[in-house]
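Quick start: what a row looks like.
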Amino acid sequence: MRDIILINKKRSNHYYYFNKLNGLSIRAEYPGSIEPFWAKEGPELLDISITNYCEKKCSFCYRNSSTNGKHMSLEEYQSILIQLKNTHTYQIALGGGNPNQHPNFIEILRMTREDYGIVPSYTTNGMGLTEEILEASKLYCGAVAVSYYEPIGEFIKALTKIKNMKIKTNVHYLLTSESIDNAIKLIESEPKYLEGINSIIFLNYKPVGENSDERLLLKLNSRVKDFFDAINNHDLRKFKIGFDSCSVSGIVKYLDYNPIFIDSCEAGRFSAFISEDLKLYPCSFMESILNGIDLRKNSICDSWLESEEFVALRDSIHSNQCYKVCLFARDCVGGCPIFREINLC
């Protein structure tokens, strides 16, 4: 039963269930209690950039990753894992940059799963997927996601490598005003190369980083409703469709949904981000607007509970004015609390 985690979170008045085998996580409030607003014990999911190295230099990269990107040291990464015993964190999303290009990537996967009982997953641009890395991914990871990009042939080659290893495979697709037409085609035509994947996860574009462009905001395209209509009509037996929480305002406006399965923005409430230089943020997109909390001087737990950055964000979400005027506010909790311009309502 070590693959089944059930935690009684007394400080937050809820239970947390996590199945390491299939990734199912359930958060349930105590009988008679309201749904928990945040996990006072610590983040249930951590997004960790172990490197800012990346070979592709995509123009839309909000982290400005490049071949000059810095790696987090193995010792620094382990210092994070040691602290997570106190925060009840059982999932880590490894990112970058291209995380599988970290020189100690296989050891990072092994250490995370074997030594600390935490399930790692990661997102890759598809480059550098050696046989050894794929074997380690199959052995230790909950899932691997491939970023959708052009040229499509390179993307398909990487996707096929991972699928052939029988690893749970997701596709991350960045939704912009320019890419939404192709997204609709993908959903409606269901190309053969998507057979066998677990899901496509659509990511709402945020105008963050040196190369940000507000003309790419999703809401500027008139086909947003067409996109969600295509999802409403999609046969989920072919592959599942998911979203980042930054898309929640569009989900509640356009999709047929069950509120039980909706996650609004969890930054600073149930999740957090750590950069490769060991700084803690509520989410990775806040790296450009906050200095970050230096984890060489502060603990994850204390920063989560008491830091000005995390407390202020939770207060902002909790006092959202949408509750007064919108029927969907209870489910979307106001959408993105930082970059209001990305909201689709």
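That is the whole record. Residues 105 and 161 are 18 Å apart (CA to CA). The chain is about 30% helix and 20% strand.
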